[in-house]
Amino acid sequence: MKGVAKLRPGAGQVGLLDAPEPTVIPGHVVIEVTAAGLCGTDVHIYHDEYPCRPPVILGHEVAGKIVDVGSGDSRFRTGNSVTSEPNFTLCGTCPFCRGGMPYHCSKRASIGSGVNGAFARYVLVKERSVHLLPEGVDEWTGALTEPMACCVHALENSRVEPGDLAVITGPGAIGLMMLQVVKAAGAQAVVIGTETDEARLELARQLGADESLIAGKDDLHKFVIERNDGLGADIAFECSGAGPGAQTALDLVRHRGRYVQVGLFGKPVMWDLEQVCVKEVQVQGTFATVASSWRKTLALLQTGQLRTAPLISHRLPLEAWQEAFDLFEGREGVKIVFSPE
């Protein structure tokens, strides 16, 4: 089968790889991939900014149908529509594994970086990582469960209360997912982008943003302060993964407010840490997911409180992988999803 893979270390070094179809083994299932989302992490791997073990097929946002199971007592059956967490290898004994925080396990390997991932027709995954898609959630919607669960986990890692004013910097796919999660929690949401983000900001309004603003054009401070009794934002979610977005979020958060870093930068950025001290800002990093964030995400997708389908702007075959990466880096559309068929 063909797979979009990181072929060797170094910037670039991505292309189509001929790989054998995976064979099921005990404790695992094979998924025939219907849809697999292109993530910022895949682009960081392309630029050699995120660790991986080449040659390895990329892709960790996935949904499809089970075509083989590794044991007769499996809770899954062939034909089940499923999605999967990226976790593949874990030690199972470290404090993080035992504490339900497997993404901090030093032995962790995930599909799409440590082992072959979902940018191929078939992918082998751990049975323990698999989730049935609820009734009413199709496989295109389900393919984006993982990034949405990352946003739910960001909410779990912070404190958002009904009526809070939340600022979200970066109206890309993660920012637009974070918007929906914040609104589901009962907060007000202001989404901030740049002049190149007008289409994405319009989508933010359609998805429930209370306001969308353009940095460098709108008076961000005036608007945010006036909207919250002269205080500033109660909480800021930085989703752009860009230095200016991080600084904007820190500037807008109020004294004794909360700042949550959701986006990955891929490199060091400049940041005014003195504001953290002077304003006594609580700074929280957040990474990946935990079991509870998957359960909540799937439930909210089923009720329609969270929506991923409106974010899919491009559906491309694997052979168009270079076009997909170029679209992502050109900030065209919102979410690019591969269809191996």
Describe it.
The strands form 4 sheets. Strands 3, 5, 6, 9, 10, 17 and 18 form a 7-stranded mixed β-sheet that branches. Strands 13-12-11-14-15-16 form a 6-stranded parallel β-sheet, sandwiched between helices. It is globular and about 60 Å long. It starts with a strand and ends with a strand. The chain is α/β, with parallel strands linked by helices and 341 residues long. The mean pLDDT is 96. Helix 4 packs across helix 5 and helix 4 packs across helix 10. It is built from 11 helices and 18 strands.
Largest sheet report:
7 strands, mixed
Q: Helices and strands: which structural class?
A: alpha/beta
As residue ranges, the low-confidence spans are none
Question: What sequence of helices (H) and strands (E) makes up the elements?
Answer: EEEHEEEEHEEEHHEHEHEHEHEHEHEHE
Query: Helicity range of the residues?
Result: 25-40%
Please count the beta strands (DSSP E, at least 2 residues each).
18
Q: How much of the polypeptide forms β-strand, as a percent range?
A: 25-35%
Radius of gyration (Å): 20 Å
Shape: globular
Q: Round the mean pLDDT to the nearest integer and report it.
A: 96
**In angstroms, what separates the terminal alpha carbons?**
11 Å
Count of helical segments? 11
